[in-house]
């Protein structure tokens, strides 16, 4: 992906920043899902976040990510419908961008996002609008699954908004959900 024209990490970090007051940023525990080379972590670190962990299945990507020096715990795992080794209710914020690209994770991965997020915590997902209709794994599946999770009382939608120029001239969509408190 052409990093110069890919704004996903910047958009994701901006929304995390909007949702977390400045005086809490050093205390908030963040998980960057499908972290790749660590672009979200770098953006969050610039904005005062210091407690950032990462999950990505690629050893090569994680090697680059480690060099950023902004991540604490690093998990080399796939995220899927099966639980990861991450303990339940661990994170205040779970964030991802670029992860729904070409079916990198099933829609059921949203269940795992909820499982690892603390009650009252946030899940922030940023993706290209085109993936909602062009990628078979998400077309007519992602948003209905998210709605089912909301109907089950697991999370509630805070924001669904379209943002310009996620990648070149392709718009992005930002989802923010708050995990329901017990």
Structural features:
182 residues, alpha/beta, 7-stranded mixed β-sheet, 6 helices
Describe this structure in words.
With 182 residues, the protein is an alpha/beta fold. Helix content is 27%, strand content 30%. It contains six helices and seven strands, in the order αβαβαββαβααββ. It has helices spanning 8-19, 39-46, 59-66, 109-116, 131-134, 142-151; strands at 30-33, 52-55, 71-75, 91-97, 117-128, 155-167, 170-179. The protein has a seven-stranded mixed β-sheet with strand order 3-2-1-4-5-7-6, with helices on both faces. The relative contact order is 0.17.
Set out the fold topology.
Elements: H1 8-19, E1 30-33, H2 39-46, E2 52-55, H3 59-66, E3 71-75, E4 91-97, H4 109-116, E5 117-128, H5 131-134, H6 142-151, E6 155-167, E7 170-179
Instruction: Provide a count of the helices.
Output: 6
Give the class from helix and strand content and strand pairing: alpha/beta
Q: Please describe the biggest sheet, giving its number of strands, its sense, and whether it closes into a barrel.
A: 7 strands, mixed
Spatial separation of the terminal alpha carbons: 40 Å
Reading the helices and strands in chain order gives HEHEHEEHEHHEE
Strands across the major sheet, in which order? 3-2-1-4-5-7-6
Q: Helicity, in percent?
A: 25-40%
**Count of DSSP strands:** 7
Shape, principal axes of CA atoms: globular
Are there runs of 5+ residues with pLDDT below 50, and where? none
pLDDT averaged residue by residue: 92
* Strand percent estimate: 25-35%
| Rg for CA atoms | 15 Å
């Amino acid at each position: 992906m052409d990093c110069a024209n890919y704004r996903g990490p910047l958009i994701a970090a901006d929304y995390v920043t909007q949702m977390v007051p400045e005086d809490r940023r050093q205390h908030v525990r963040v998980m960057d899902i499908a972290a790749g080379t660590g672009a979200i972590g770098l953006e969050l670190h610039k904005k005062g976040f210091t407690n950032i962990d990462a999950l990505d299945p690629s050893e090569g990507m994680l090697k680059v990510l480690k060099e950023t020096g902004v991540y604490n715990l690093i998990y080399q795992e796939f995220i899927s419908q099966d639980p990861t080794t991450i303990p339940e209710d661990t994170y205040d914020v779970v964030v991802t961008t670029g992860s729904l690209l070409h079916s990198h994770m099933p829609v059921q991965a949203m269940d795992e996002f909820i499982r690892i997020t603390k009650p009252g915590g946030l899940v922030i997902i940023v993706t290209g609008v085109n993936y909602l209709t062009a990628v078979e794994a998400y077309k007519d599946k992602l948003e209905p699954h998210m709605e089912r999770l909301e109907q089950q009382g697991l999370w509630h939608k805070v924001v669904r908004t379209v943002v310009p120029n996620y990648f070149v001239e392709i718009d992005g969509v930002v989802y923010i959900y708050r995990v329901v408190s017990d």
